[in-house]
Amino acid sequence: MSKATILSGKYFRMFLMTIIVVPVILLIARNIGFFGNALLVLLGFGAVVIVHEFGHFIVAKLSGIKVEAFSLFMPPILLGVQKTEEGMRIRILPEILPKKGDDSGNGALCFTIAGKYKASDTEYRVGLIPFGGFVKMLGQEDTGSVKSNDDPRSYANKPPHTRAAVLAAGVTFNIISAVIVFMIVFLIGINLTPAVVGDVMPNSPAERAGLKAGDEIIEIEGESEDLDFGNIAIAAALSGKDEKVQMRVRHEDGSEEDLTLVAEQIPGESLRGFGIRSGQSLTIAELAEDDAKVLFERTGLLPGDRITSVNGKQVQTKWELDGIVENTLAPDVTFLVERTGKDKKVTLVEARIKLEMAPYGDGHICSMVPRFRMENLGVEKPSSTKMNRLLEKIGVKKPPEEKPFLKSGDVILNIGEVACPTHHEFRDTVKNYDNKDLPIQVLRVDPNGVEKQYAFSVRPKRKKDSEGARIGISFNIMFDSEHPVVAETITVENGPARLEIPRGASITAVDGVAVSNFYDVIREIKRYSDERITINYRLNEQVAGDIPLEVGNGEGLFAVKSTLAESIPFEILERTYKAAGPVDAVVMGYRKTVMFVAQTYVTLRRLIGGLVSPKDLMGPVGIMTLSYRIVAERPFVYYVYFLGLISAAIAVFNFLPLPPLDGGLVVLLLAEKIKGSALSERVQAIVAYAGWAVIGTLILYVTFNDIVRSFFS
């Protein structure tokens, strides 16, 4: 080969490298924040993979096994480095950019940095697909099967216990690294959500057990050390069907109580739970600039504001704030907040927040049930929606035309043949209109702020195993407090006598004082303790009247509560979990690792038993997306904590008895030990390919769900 040809080949490779590298560098420079966070994610996962593979690698080396390759991430090869007698050989994309006429597999982008080295058996690689990694040993095929070889350094020629030690080393190193990671985290200290009840969902296991906001769970199934809110959620999600979960609770007054809860499927939640919401602080959470502007326009609050009093009453916790708000029963409430300016000066600011009226218990005002309004309306999507949304997003399919339908804020005036329905009558009517047009009339505020009536029809359909037809919606029930219209009156046990007021009538006065909304009605009734007053109403121009009301001592008069009309994002309540010293950090790290290993195992067991849905699993894309969010939005210690969790989970997953995972290969070694000889290469390959098929199918399934969840939810 002539010198000119060699030079031209060299310059061509340099040119090829330039046109690949320069655009990449420019792209990174223009998006340095994104790529910086992405790099941290890849480095973190790379560290978890390297630890696992290093376990295999070091034990194989110590056992005298020839290791041909140590790879971070999966093929094709992005970069390969190996010591040779001529120097340090470097290969770049050898499989994608092969060299014509070269059978060595080095590729077009291969060069050697001259130096005196002892030739190494191992090539250290970085794969192009940023997922997983592997160690390639002599005598071990890519499928995980073992191939006969005369070389004494072959994996196949080592006794079963040596090979089992090599396979178990990866999992062992993952567990050890998880303990070390958690030890470091707890030495530094990390803020986690404590096991404190922030709120209890109505008619949930927690409510039936008597849990209240402010209660703290101090023991779950005998475990009492370092509990955080995640322990509560996981205890519920991973409990068996109808399994009783034992808890010990400390109430706000300091008393303690043992409770038993059974997890249920909570409406709107993917996993079973107890109906316990985590606590919140009194500080407004950080928001994007546009969201912060909207919040200020609607409430007068800003991110970082800390609420100190409500209607003049000092508050120390979010549940104290909630209690005052619920009992306000007025159109609005006044918050006094501490606001820290850019100059670090703290000022006190008042903010008036609009309230809504919600039912509580029977949901009545002196036996009068107001009309109801739908809030936070959610529309269930058909089963094909995920794929349809994906196709619509990329422009393959046109989205369906929007038909007239219910919206958040709608007051239901009529449904079917029922005028002025209660929310119970609304649901009952829907159930009885299976596959039939159901007329609905609503009162709705248009974009200009004007109230208008709208009429349209929906077609409820009955699903398999459902009690009746449905229109596929979920919503929060609020009362139409702005219009004192009575939907019905009810008999209240141990409460006021039922008022005989016609359906659809409007309350016009309370004991001679004109009223224009239900807040006026409540205010006026409260003025007359232990007195007999008159309630005036009007149904239409022809029908009007009045009716007496015995107010009594006020007990049981109002089964309604106030809630904030605008969603205010409070920061999550957090507590610092920090070790007292190095020894305590090791103990805490060990406990946390054991907990996550046990939880991963139970999750897989519940998955097989059908108590956990595959839809709730997270694959590589979901884990990467969540990792990026943690890196971008939270302090770095949270990402380190997350890597400890992933390391513990990988240890369990890798030791499942399914070839070609490490646990499955150990099972094959046990079979070899029992049989007295190795299984044939053909049998090993068949078993391995079957395992790959199962794993590949699961990865494709969870990856599809990850993509939909991450980009289209």
Architecture overview:
Helices cover 36% and strands 27% of the residues. It is of the alpha+beta class and 713 residues long. Among the domains are: 182 residues, no CATH class; 80 residues, PDZ domain (Pdz3 Domain), CATH 2.30.42; 108 residues, Pdz3 Domain; 71 residues, Pdz3 Domain (Roll), CATH 2.30.42. It has a five-stranded antiparallel beta sheet with strand order 15-14-16-17-32, with helices on one face. The chain has a four-stranded antiparallel beta sheet with strand order 3-2-1-4, with helices on one face. Strand 10 and strand 11 form a beta hairpin. Helix 11 crosses helix 13. The longest helix is centred in the last third of the chain and has 32 residues. The two termini are 60 Å apart. The model has no long low-confidence stretch (mean pLDDT 87).
List the helices and strands and how they pair.
Blueprint lengths: L2 H28 L1 H31 L4 E17 L3 E6 L16 E6 L8 E15 L22 H29 L1 E3 L4 E4 L4 H5 L6 E5 L8 H9 L6 E7 L5 E7 L1 E2 L6 E2 L2 E3 L1 E5 L4 H11 L6 E5 L2 E2 L3 H9 L5 E9 L5 E14 L8 E3 L1 E8 L5 H9 L17 E5 L2 E2 L3 H9 L6 E8 L5 E8 L2 E2 L6 E2 L2 E7 L6 E4 L16 E5 L2 E2 L3 H9 L5 E7 L5 E7 L9 E5 L5 E3 L2 E3 L4 H28 L10 H14 L2 H19 L7 H14 L5 H32 L1
Helix pairs in contact: 2-3, 2-12, 2-13, 3-11, 3-13, 3-14, 11-13, 12-15
